[in-house]
TrEMBL record:
Residues 1-22 form the signal peptide. The lineage of its organism: Eukaryota, Metazoa, Spiralia, Lophotrochozoa, Mollusca. It comes from the Eukaryota. This is Peptidase C51 domain-containing protein. Keywords: Signal.
Length: 159
């Protein structure tokens, strides 16, 4: 029992000092990619926020929660996960006020990418997985030549 306690304490110390995360970006990316072609988060789906609503933020929240990540939630009038606007805001109080999330400039697999209107998960080299109006897709959103890289914000889960 003492060995387990010491091991657990060392893991917590390493995590806080080195930023070592028990939840890898690869784990997040694989969870997102499992839903490619799913219509569960489509505009027409009744999931979570109901039919005729965008659900890219719900997709990101559902993926993150499925692997045990802490997803920031809004509580005024609507208690759901934060929207694409917050994921795309480098100064988001919901994210910057949560020690599990770091705003980063160099994206890695598993990071959340947002532009203030849409949000997805980085799942490969210049690839993201996100909920579109019709289904979950893996494509080059966020990395297209006609998209300015300065308008995208990346958040990394570090807990």
């Amino acid at each position: 029992m003492l060995k387990l306690t010491i091991f657990s304490a060392l893991c917590l110390i390493l995590q806080s000092i080195c930023g070592i995360s028990a939840l890898s970006g690869g784990t997040i990316a694989r969870a997102a990619d499992r839903h490619i072609d799913s219509t569960h988060w489509s505009f027409a789906s009744s999931h979570a926020t109901g039919r005729n609503t965008n659900k890219c933020n719900i997709f990101v929240a559902d993926v993150l929660e499925s692997v045990g990540a802490d997803v920031p939630r809004r509580w005024f009038g609507f208690s759901g996960p934060i929207g694409a606007g917050e994921w795309g805001n480098p100064s988001s109080s919901y994210l910057s006020g949560n020690s599990c999330w770091n705003n980063v400039n160099s994206p890695r697999i598993g990071d959340v990418i947002g532009d203030g209107v849409h949000v997805g998960i980085v799942t490969g080299y210049r690839k993201t997985t996100s909920a579109r109006y019709d289904m979950v897709v893996k494509n080059d959103w966020g990395y297209r030549s006609n998209q300015s890289s300065t308008r995208f914000t990346f958040w990394r889960y570090v807990c």
